Amino acid sequence: MFRISKLADYAVVVLADMARTSDTLMSAAVIAENTRMAEPTVAKVLKMLSRQGIVLSVRGAGGGYRLARPADQIAVIDIVEAIEGPIALTACVDGAEPDCALGACCSVRGRWDSVNQAMRSALEEVMLADMIAPPRVSEPKGAGYGGH
After folding, report:
1. pLDDT higher than threshold 70 for residue 118
2. Residue 3 and residue 89 in contact, taking contact as beta carbons nearer than 8 Å
3. Which range of residues forms the domain containing residue 34?
4. Interatomic CA distance for residues 87 and 73, integer angstroms
5. Is residue 145 part of a domain?
């Protein structure tokens, strides 16, 4: 099963909380309280996001963090990659394994690229704003036409 890390998941939660008050500086303590996450974890996530330019950090007594750009301009892939690095399903896709022991005879060499690109494209299309929008309620089956 493919999963993003807990830290990347936490980053989305932290940013979603921040996006609800996008122009307000928020401290790690306030975000921790709002999200019910441990403050050291929130601080770690914010530091990583700050390094990647997703949040801006303001030092001082009235300081805190805020989004570097609007929530509709922050893609989920940006968040995940800020925490985990480049997304790739296998090491050979991201080039981490240039000398794979099976490279010369691998029957799927290069085939993961299209799968990896499809996953990247999906994550590029989902924005932070989509993550904070209320979920769409779909009609129950049979609703609207009187069927059973």
Report:
1. yes
2. no
3. 6-132
4. 19
5. no
pLDDT value at residue 49: 98
Distance CA 8, CA 108 (A): 29
Residue matched to tokens 């940006």 = 78
Residue 126: left if φ>0, alpha if ψ -120 to 50, beta else—which one?
beta
Let me know if residue 144 belongs to a domain: no
Evaluate whether residue 138 is within a structural domain. Answer: no
Q: Residue 9: helix, strand or coil by DSSP?
A: helix
Token pair for 117? 């690109």
pLDDT of res. 1? 55
Would you state the structure tokens that stand for residue 119, as one six-digit string?
A: 């996953």
pTM for this entry:
0.79
Distance between CA atoms of 75 and 140, rounded to whole angstroms?
31
Q: What's the domain count of the chain? A: 1
Confidence of residue 99 (pLDDT cuts 50, 70, 90): low
User: Of 67, 84, 76, which is closest to residue 6 (Cα–Cα)?
Assistant: 84
**Contact, 5 vs 84, CB < 8 A?**
yes
Q: Give the integer Cα–Cα distance in Å for 47 and 37.
A: 15
